[in-house]
Amino acid sequence: MPETCNIVSLVDEIENPGEIPTDIKTLGEANITSPFIKKDYSCFVSDDDRVLLLASAKSAERLRDNLPSFELAGPRNQIYFDPSKTKCAIVTCGGLCPGINDVIRSIVMTLFYGYGIHTVFGIRYGLRGFIADYGLPVVELTPQTVDRIHEYGGTVLGSSRGPQPTGKIVDALEKMNVSILFTIGGDGTFKASAKIAEEIDKRGRKIAVIAIPKTIDNDIFLVSKTFGFDTAVQMACEAIKCAHTEALGAPNCIGLVKLMGRYAGFIAAAATIALREVNYCLIPESDFDLEGEKGLLKHLEGRLENRGHAVIVVAEGAGQKYFEDQPKEKDLSGNVKLGDIGKFLKQKIQEHFKTAEKEVYIRYIDPSYIIRSVPSNVDDSLYCGNLGQNAVHAAMAGKTDMMVSLWNDRYVHIPLRSAIMHRKRVKLNSRFWMSVLESTGQPSLKN
Amino acid sequence: MPETCNIVSLVDEIENPGEIPTDIKTLGEANITSPFIKKDYSCFVSDDDRVLLLASAKSAERLRDNLPSFELAGPRNQIYFDPSKTKCAIVTCGGLCPGINDVIRSIVMTLFYGYGIHTVFGIRYGLRGFIADYGLPVVELTPQTVDRIHEYGGTVLGSSRGPQPTGKIVDALEKMNVSILFTIGGDGTFKASAKIAEEIDKRGRKIAVIAIPKTIDNDIFLVSKTFGFDTAVQMACEAIKCAHTEALGAPNCIGLVKLMGRYAGFIAAAATIALREVNYCLIPESDFDLEGEKGLLKHLEGRLENRGHAVIVVAEGAGQKYFEDQPKEKDLSGNVKLGDIGKFLKQKIQEHFKTAEKEVYIRYIDPSYIIRSVPSNVDDSLYCGNLGQNAVHAAMAGKTDMMVSLWNDRYVHIPLRSAIMHRKRVKLNSRFWMSVLESTGQPSLKN
Amino acid sequence: MPETCNIVSLVDEIENPGEIPTDIKTLGEANITSPFIKKDYSCFVSDDDRVLLLASAKSAERLRDNLPSFELAGPRNQIYFDPSKTKCAIVTCGGLCPGINDVIRSIVMTLFYGYGIHTVFGIRYGLRGFIADYGLPVVELTPQTVDRIHEYGGTVLGSSRGPQPTGKIVDALEKMNVSILFTIGGDGTFKASAKIAEEIDKRGRKIAVIAIPKTIDNDIFLVSKTFGFDTAVQMACEAIKCAHTEALGAPNCIGLVKLMGRYAGFIAAAATIALREVNYCLIPESDFDLEGEKGLLKHLEGRLENRGHAVIVVAEGAGQKYFEDQPKEKDLSGNVKLGDIGKFLKQKIQEHFKTAEKEVYIRYIDPSYIIRSVPSNVDDSLYCGNLGQNAVHAAMAGKTDMMVSLWNDRYVHIPLRSAIMHRKRVKLNSRFWMSVLESTGQPSLKN
Amino acid sequence: MPETCNIVSLVDEIENPGEIPTDIKTLGEANITSPFIKKDYSCFVSDDDRVLLLASAKSAERLRDNLPSFELAGPRNQIYFDPSKTKCAIVTCGGLCPGINDVIRSIVMTLFYGYGIHTVFGIRYGLRGFIADYGLPVVELTPQTVDRIHEYGGTVLGSSRGPQPTGKIVDALEKMNVSILFTIGGDGTFKASAKIAEEIDKRGRKIAVIAIPKTIDNDIFLVSKTFGFDTAVQMACEAIKCAHTEALGAPNCIGLVKLMGRYAGFIAAAATIALREVNYCLIPESDFDLEGEKGLLKHLEGRLENRGHAVIVVAEGAGQKYFEDQPKEKDLSGNVKLGDIGKFLKQKIQEHFKTAEKEVYIRYIDPSYIIRSVPSNVDDSLYCGNLGQNAVHAAMAGKTDMMVSLWNDRYVHIPLRSAIMHRKRVKLNSRFWMSVLESTGQPSLKN
User: Fold this and answer.
1) Class of B230-371 per CATH?
2) For chain C, which terminus, N or C, has the lower number of CB atoms within 10 Å?
């Protein structure tokens, strides 16, 4: 049985574990005693504490002399930066995601109360905030200013897409005398962060760059589940429930919901499993045909005849083969603009049933940003708080060029170059996708 | 000062009160002692109990010898129908609305426990359900089957749009031996209900027709506030909050939300007042220009320069002058299909700022059906329960050709011919619309 | 039929309407042109616009030559205070209630943007904040500081109970040069406000005192529904749902919920009607016996035998006859401390079934402050916004010694001396209480 | 550094991993081809697929020749039971927990649609339902009857506490011809289930017994996080938010919240971390003193002086040393009835400040059952669905005497005898508890 079939949760087993770099770069020797938790309690973590990349017994046996593992995250009792001289900066990049403010708040609070660091700069509107030409002022983040920001969606710093010149960013860091840069973003931000760390190294500076992975699509490699994903699924479920209600409310009615998911259908799939009232779940990873004997339209026709209603959930990146001949535009992040599969499906279904001379009603719901702009739910709040704390601990210990991640139920340090090796996808032979198929009862939809 | 300016809540003062019919038709003398509440308590209402159409002192003075008033709703101690021989039917028509199931449940429960009536037919998919050709089975509604339906959105009976032949509907009522028909719907349903009552009268039958007003747009004349409206506003607020969060999350960003409201902008206006984070509220009743010195685009440009973000809420029926030359399609209810003002605005704004060579981001949110498919909130539940109870009391007393309404904070009986005299609109010189303008700070937007 | 039976909503008809003072005191002639809404639109209200106290046709006929009415609230085109010289103060008294922050925000925003008044003092911790001995600093309220406070429960100003010396309060107002005092509170606050207005008058000062009625119990005379009540009922419903779930989850199980309601059972009654899953609703207005043939315990025993579960809702002020011999303590507001009817009932039920040798489980839920400390829901937000606006308009016009109220669906001015004439109660012969009895099916529970 | 310090999430590392049995009993050879998912896709799991007990690299090294691991859960391609002849039973025991209905629904749906098993008996009111003396009818569970039960809290089967005679239970299973018994419960249920499996074995019967771990307190050994815990924490947060609002609303005010947690303070601790507005978190695992220099009262006094308010969260099992001399009663499950630490604390705080002649207000909130009776949130729904599916797969493969668990982010089979070896507790030297201390800033509170 292939190892890739062992996946029972959202955690993917890795195909070539041996090839993944696991060493974390440090800026130098950590020889300052940590002021963190001066009380009777103390619970420091050492660099020797590591978490296995793979938790399957087979992998452990196969790789037994060279078991890949990641550094465990957490506070070190020896730190690299002198708190009294350390200034930090936080930047948020890319699209919104529930919990960004929680992460910002947690970083500021941990720096202030855990390490006594009082200067934290908030960079406005993503990497742009480093570039003088934009004229964006830096804001000071204090426990007072961030106290209640976790109750709001979005990011108090603002965000933007796209790269900015690495040299100018490092210039800005030097000018501000920043020792630690926290970047909150996805794939593109990891690449930018890695370049910044490289440039810092070239210049012989001692500035730590720590990334906190953020993507609403949950598609970052080596992260079990990205923050905000839970909340997004919850909101997606609300939209699907409405589509179901609509589908039941009129004769021959189809509730059609478009959800986020450019390359990975995790939101659509997880919402389908959680709600269990979806009949077709279409995601980018699973090709499907519209026409033909086994195509969606034919199957849908049968379902309407038998049941009188249907609920379809489609991730925005699904069915892009139908837009192959349209001109490719790109957004600032370099993402190709997708064809609007939601409206396309709506139109195709209408045409099909018109041709078949059958009455059909379609209730199309595109919750769009509603899914990502809400405040984090309790799970995500808890998670974001932990990510922020661990990012601070890593930075204070002098780690750099890495991201904080949750892996095998533990917080770990992962090199940025490993994080950008792949993009996480829904594996079609995983238990996760099987659960979707069990729930929907949909066939392959392929001729 | 014009009387029309006195409006401080959603209740409109009436312009020609004297012309509104207020007499309720009855099928005959109510001479059966009501079984309703056999206990020590009893609180019957008499037909002499009436509620003033206008509650202003000026009106009272002006019309003092002929003060128009409506019959107070509530249980009568003498009823017309013998419970042991009475069968009822319920039909739900038109679009969904939070609370329909609450109304159905309340009617069934009151008939059963209040009057001992055990046969209530649910007609499936609106007026279609009466027409044999559609082959739709009738369902029996009992306290057991409706016990928890109020926890769901939509209608358990299903709905449909458009008229059906009145004769066939009355044929069906006769065949089923139905004595009372409850219709839950809007303007079109009132007209159909009035025709049904007329046909019944022609045939000399004794079947009561009682309407319960339903419209998500809150645009029914002589109803203070339609059920489901509260819930819809609540959901609209959720969408606007997200748009606001998005607008704050990127540089020069506009959150644009399209809301329901074909001819009346009550949802958009009420959400604007409740949330107080909208900068432009565009509704069908208030004409606005896009171009020109005082137009929206110019003003928006100024706002972005000063504040860096903006939130626009537009009701679907606003700005239809921009679609005048497009062909007019109609839906089954005879409503003209509206031009998509949301997408149009998005495109126009994008073009404007592209021409002006200014960066702008637009986050477009169209919550569509999400606003109307959710379960009712507590307020609407309470309201729907009362509407259902009062509809039953009216019917049992032999009233017909009328709707149950909330007016001047009391439940009343209103003739259907009065209910369809006008459509309720947001009055631009009302305190209600003034509150919107206070909240947004928007100017007239007219050149 | 008694007039008191006409009540179909939460609005009570009044027993002796002729005795209620309706004249509003003013500080002097309003002869300054209002800066409020300088735009094309304008919608001013005149003092001649009045709203009938009673909207029933019978009352109108009976009192036709002397129809009592209240001044309509809203902006006047001539105002009394010169905005450039006017300072205001806001104080919040008594227990928390959802929406207090909405009212504060609305007052500050309307003063600032509607009238150009920039100095608004927030008095901390109720009337104490006026008394120097407590050393409580005054806070300045600006659009910036109040911008998002409506998203939180409670009051940003803090509150306290109990009276303070009127003279010292007026001293403080004079020292601060305050022209308008807004008091947010209930019965006790009205009395204090009236005394303050009297003292101001004695001293020949021109300071307006405007009250905004606040009580979670909805028991203020001449107010249709107090703000926060909707939200409280919603929260109460959540608690009752849990009790119902628990009652269904174990054999012979009783869900028992205690709710707020010292003298008036509106919350318990409204939640009972809205949810329709309560079997016994016990309120202060309706006496009941525990023991005896017709007592609660006997009836409950029957219900458990037949149905296996039950849900009881009890308002905290119900059944106080069982505590008559306990010593009477008072809180700071002078309210007698109530006997804990919830725990008492729990114990009595347990004893009864133990004696009867029948197994019974009781799940006791006392949500206590959860019901009143949450943020306001959308309905209450909208309502609070309107109350705040109208309070400002009244004050600017030089009105004093009055409260703003919603009556017959319109905002009106009501003299404080009228507001404190009675306390609103659930009338046992009203349609409102009948709805409770219809929903629960409970008998009189009196031997 | 001790291994026990490595805990970064709710998953505990195990102290004596070698002593934990990991072998799963089976009823016999699985040699029937599974009908599960007959489509193109297939994703079967083999018994050789195992998940490491410990995911730390150190453990892997130390135990390298004998790495303990659990069987991976999931569908096997060879099954033991012939679906056409298999009847199943489900029983729910102990207290309510969000998600029980989700688990029931998932089991029924997977049996029906995945394996074609159409007879599933629901046992009413826990183990009692097996005992004829109680006269409780068995209910048939079908896809229709369970379709929407996941939308409600509680258990549609009802539950009860305490053991029943094992022999009689097995008699009942035999009489009903049941091949698979699913038990949903906690520690006590595991013990009962193990005894049932033993008795079945003695009698030479082939009946699988599969447990699904349920406890609101999250205190089951070898389960990362029990279902319903997320939802409970969410509800706990709502209560704490109210306490915080109250604490801010009056001078010198303390919000005091009592939460579930008999032996383990996970709910209190997780809510504290998620919300970050708690000042003292008291749990059973962490002893504290009230009196004395370092005691809670003294520290609280200091906090009130400095900040004017405080929020205390106490788990019901905390501070039981203060009730040592009270008589020990036990409930049906054999749990000792706890002293009411919430009321005790309230009283002690009041006394302390009265003695100190300092004004203090206490707002005491005990949400009690509200926390556990609500429907599951989306996270728990997803989790419960997976637990139910995997329980069915395990049973069909002939596994018995085991529970389904989530461990190291994967679903696994764990022998019941291992599950009851210990109870999970909050470890005071874990990162989890450290996060609580970071968040509250509370000292040890021990003299």
Assistant:
1) alpha beta
2) C
The span from the CA of B141 to the CA of B106, in Å, is 11
Helix (H, G, I), strand (E, B) or coil at B86: coil
Report CA Rg, chain A: 24
- Which residue spans of chain A are classified as CATH 3.40.50.450? 3-226+374-419
pLDDT tens, residue order, chain B (447 aa): 233 333 334 455 677 888 999 999 999 999 999 987 655 556 788 899 999 999 888 888 888 788 899 999 999 999 999 999 999 999 999 999 999 999 999 999 999 999 999 999 999 999 999 999 999 999 999 999 999 999 999 999 999 999 999 999 999 999 999 999 999 999 999 999 999 999 999 999 999 999 999 999 999 999 999 999 999 999 999 999 999 999 999 999 999 999 999 999 999 999 999 988 999 999 999 999 999 999 999 999 999 999 999 999 999 999 999 999 888 788 777 788 899 999 999 999 999 999 999 999 999 999 999 999 999 999 999 999 999 999 999 999 999 999 999 998 889 999 999 999 999 999 888 888 888 988 898 998 999
Per the annotation, the verdict on B219 as an active-site residue is: no
B-facing residues of C in 404-443 (CB < 8 A) are 406, 408-411, 428-431, 433-435, 437-439, 441, 443
Give the pLDDT score at C93.
Answer: 97
Q: Residue B378: enclosing H or E segment and its boundaries? A: helix B378-396
ipTM for the complex shown: 0.93
Residue C245 and residue D153: Cβ atoms within 8 Å?
A: yes
Q: CB burial class (10 A; 0-12, 13-18, 19+) of residue B222? A: buried
CATH of domain C11-225+375-419: 3.40.50.450
Of A224, A270, A386, the CB nearest to D435: A386
Q: CATH 3.40.50.460 spans which residues of chain B?
A: 230-371
* Interface contact D11-A389, CB threshold 8 A: no
Q: Which residues of C touch D373 (CB under 8 A)?
A: 241-243, 245-246, 249
A363 touches chain B (CB under 8 A): yes
pLDDT digits (tens, 9 = 90+) for D373-418: 999 999 999 999 999 999 999 999 999 999 999 998 889 999 999 9
Cβ of residue C165 closer than 8 Å to a chain B Cβ = no
Please answer yes or no on whether C368 and D364 come within 8 Å at the CB atom. yes
Which of the listed CATH numbers 2.60.40.1120, 1.10.3720.10, 3.40.50.450, 3.40.50.10490 matches domain A3-226+374-419?
A: 3.40.50.450
d(CA D92, CA A20): 46
What is the DSSP-derived secondary structure letter of residue A330?
B
**Residues from chain C contacting residue B371 (CB–CB below 8 Å):** none
Contacts of residue D36, Cβ cutoff 8 Å, sequence gap at least 6: D75, D79, D114, D115, D393, D396
Least Cα separation, residue C52 to chain B (angstroms) = 5
**CATH number assigned to the domain with residue range D3-226+375-419, chosen from the 4 options 3.40.50.10170, 3.90.930.12, 3.40.50.450, 3.40.50.2300:** 3.40.50.450
Distance CA A244, CA A363 (A): 9
**Using CB atoms and an 8 Å cut-off, which of residues 283-342 of chain B contact chain A?**
none
Q: Indicate where chain C has its CATH 3.40.50.460 domain(s).
A: 229-371
Give the residue from A231, A409, A432, A435 with the most D CB atoms within 10 Å of its CB, the best one to mutate. A409
Residue A151 is encoded by which pair of tokens? 């109750």
Give the distance between the most distant pair of CA atoms in chain B.
Answer: 78
Is the CB of C408 less than 8 angstroms away from the CB of B409?
yes
Q: What is the mean pLDDT of residues C413-432?
A: 92
Alpha carbons C419 and B140: distance in angstroms, whole number: 50
Contacts of B110 in chain C (CB under 8 A): 438
Contact state of A48 with D58 under an 8 Å Cβ cutoff: yes
User: Which CATH fold would you assign to the domain C229-371?
Assistant: Rossmann fold (3.40.50)
D87 burial via Cβ count (<10 Å: 0-12, 13-18, 19+)? middle
pTM for the complete prediction? 0.95
